[in-house]
Write a structure and sequence with these properties.
It is built from 4 helices and 8 strands. By secondary structure, the protein is an alpha+beta fold. It has a domain of 137 residues: Translation Initiation Factor IF3 (2-Layer Sandwich), CATH 3.30.110. About 6% of the residues have low confidence.
Length: 198
């Protein structure tokens, strides 16, 4: 390809695999996106914010909380896939009770290559590439739990407590095994000799 230069790339994204309401925000995660900016945008739309109700005569002001959006979608392709997964997991820790549905697909990217010297008689080339893509739907409302890729909302506290207890227990057990299995070559030799003599 030393006689060609890439002039443009045309991205042909796959169609959204979810049937969404028109006001559902879609967060497109790219390789250069900053996670804090993506999370700020997602939290502004998913967190419950107080809304003041009208005053009644002799009554106090009533606050009702309601999220701006009931659902949100993270989508990414190529190198942005791992960042989209990170954003979804962080959002689930901040906003509890979110149902998740994940779908995998492929995006097609068409690269157009033009010859460096048009007089050489070379034709332009079009190369298509397939990039992995991910769609992560997070919803406050229950989703179809029989769909592949569904994750129910769960608590993370017990998971982390169980994992840390297992690490602490494994560390002490490993220390005991090191003490019990120790010994130099001479010590092992003597025990073998004593067994052979008896």
């Amino acid at each position: 390809m030393e006689n060609y230069s890439k002039t443009r790339s045309v991205d042909q994204p796959c169609v959204c695999p979810f049937s969404l309401t028109p006001n559902t925000p879609e967060v497109r995660v790219k390789d250069g996106s900053k996670i804090r900016n993506l999370l700020r945008y997602a939290l502004d739309r998913m967190e419950v914010k107080p809304r003041a109700a009208a005053h009644e005569e002799g009554g106090d002001q009533i606050h009702k909380g309601s999220p701006i959006c009931r659902q949100l979608v993270f989508t990414a392709s190529g190198k942005g896939v791992s960042k989209a997964i990170t954003c979804a997991e962080l959002l689930k820790r901040r906003v509890r009770g979110l149902h998740q549905l994940t779908k995998l697909a492929n995006n097609t990217v068409m690269d157009v290559w033009e010859p460096l010297e048009p007089a050489a008689g070379l034709d332009s080339l079009t190369v298509s590439r397939k990039l992995p893509a991910i769609w992560i739907l997070l919803s406050r409302d229950p989703l179809d739990h029989q769909q592949p890729g569904y994750q129910a909302p769960g608590r993370f506290d017990g998971l982390w407590a169980h994992a840390s207890a297992r690490e602490e227990g494994g560390g002490r057990g490993g220390h005991k095994r090191k003490r019990g299995g120790g010994g130099g070559a001479r010590g092992r030799g003597r025990s073998r000799d004593s067994k052979a003599d008896s």
